[in-house]
Design a protein that fits this description.
This protein has about 400 residues and is mainly α. It has helices at about 1-15, 70-90, 100-115, 120, 125-140, 150-155, 160-180, 185-200, 205-215, 220-225, 230-255, 265, 275-280, 280-290, 300-305, 325-330, 335-345, 345-350, 355-360, 365-389, and strands at about 30, 45, 50, 50-55, 55-60, 60-65. The N and C termini lie far apart (about 75 Å). The structure holds zinc ion. Zinc ion binds near residues 315, 317, 320, 328 and 335.
Length: about 400
């Protein structure tokens, strides 16, 4: 307590000498501690004015909390990111902007806010930050808010944001080795952290998490010999490794997730689906996205939400006694035969099979995709009308 007061007194002397003023109203103190009430004796002043003690303080855009957690900081960042994203929505609402440009805009205007200073807080799970990213993808494809994240990101060829945060953390840590140690407070903090985790296995701090991240991704040698790393060569390799690990887990999770029964058949590799770029008309693009991501009202999907047994999610438009799934709707149900004749190439309809359905929905021919979208729009209208009546 005395130490800080002495420093404040020295600052006052210095400022008086150089005719500088400190705005005491805007000056705050945060007492970092592990919970508990603050000792009432804690008081500090500057030039006779008491300085307010606060729980949180926004310093250069990052909220520091007295408990040392950065949850508050990520809440603030996600709020700011959401506002930037809404702005982007309203500006591009009536435009048919290509998908890759929309993602570029998101990365420039929104992601730069969401990732702000993530070298420090990036080990947090930060679901509030991820939510903004998910919301953007869902809005872009105009799919339901309940759409599964595994299929959503795969469809867009996007990765969860923690991957880029982890890349930035490692880059930052490696750069600390090359900065001038005598000028860098951080260098000494990290050096102390390294010392403490090497002498006590149970210590958990930023440096121990860096070590774990490198070990878990198969780069323990980088932890052991960081000085020998060429950062510019290593970082892309590290990013690729984190993505590969994600894709590996993605495959496992896709296979165990029952709601993705159709998607795991149509999505063979983890890249942005081609139709998203082929179809420049937003309306058609979104119709195909809805069909692929099960963001529709067919019984197979609505029954899942109403917890109807899978075998009972039947089509009520015909008497084939089939499940009303995407395949039945697009290629089989006789109720839409006329529309099918008009919009779906005969090759797919004749001897229809799930295999043909998959090749239709994965088609890279613009005319086929547009017709498929038109079929879905008109067949849905017919279906809705029957269901209303
Ligand atoms: Zn039917």
């Amino acid at each position: 307590m005395e130490g800080l007061q002495n420093s404040l007194n020295s600052l006052e002397q210095y400022c008086n000498k150089w005719k500088l003023t400190v705005n005491v109203q805007k000056t705050k103190i945060v007492v970092f501690r592990k919970g508990g009430a603050l000792n009432r004796q804690y008081r500090w002043s500057y030039a006779g004015n008491e300085i307010e003690i606060v729980q949180n303080f926004n310093y250069l855009g990052i909220v520091f909390s007295s408990g040392g957690s950065f949850v508050q900081a990520t809440n603030t960042l996600s709020g700011k990111g959401l506002r930037a994203m809404n702005m982007l929505f309203s500006v591009t609402k009536n435009l048919h902007t290509p998908i890759h440009i929309m993602f570029n805009l998101f990365d420039s205007y929104v992601l730069s806010i969401l990732n702000y200073n993530c070298e420090v807080w990036g080990f947090l799970k930060a679901e509030n930050i991820e939510r903004v990213h998910k919301k953007f993808c869902k809005w872009l494809l105009n799919v339901k808010m309940t759409t599964n994240t595994l299929s959503l990101y795969a469809e867009c060829g996007r990765f969860p944001l923690y991957i880029e945060r982890h890349v930035r953390i490692i880059k930052y840590r490696l750069k600390l080795n090359t900065s001038k140690s005598e000028n860098c407070i951080l260098y000494h903090i990290v050096k102390n952290q390294r010392y403490s985790i090497e002498h006590n296995q149970n210590v958990s701090n930023w440096t121990s998490k860096v070590r774990k991240l490198l070990q878990d991704s198969g780069f323990e040698e980088i932890w052991l010999f960081p000085e020998s790393v060429n950062i510019n060569m290593f970082i892309p390799e590290f990013r690729l490794r984190l993505r590969d690990i994600y894709i590996q887990n993605w495959r496992t999770n896709m296979n165990t997730c029952t709601s993705l029964y159709i998607y795991r058949e149509i999505k063979l590799s983890y890249v942005k689906s081609e139709y998203l770029e082929i179809l420049d008309n937003k309306k058609y693009r979104n119709v195909i996205a809805k069909l692929r991501l099960s963001s529709h009202n067919l019984a197979i999907e609505t029954g899942r939400h109403r917890q109807v047994d899978r075998s009972q999610r039947k089509c009520t438009m015909c008497d084939l006694n089939d499940l009303e799934d995407e395949f039945h709707f697009v290629l089989k149900c006789p109720y839409y035969s006329n529309l099918r004749q008009q919009f779906i190439p005969r090759y797919y309809v004749r001897h229809q099979s799930v295999f043909k359905f998959i090749s239709l929905i994965n088609s890279d021919r613009k005319s086929v995709l547009i017709k498929l979208a038109k079929f879905c729009i008109q067949a849905s209208e017919v279906r809705n009308q029957v269901n209303i009546n």
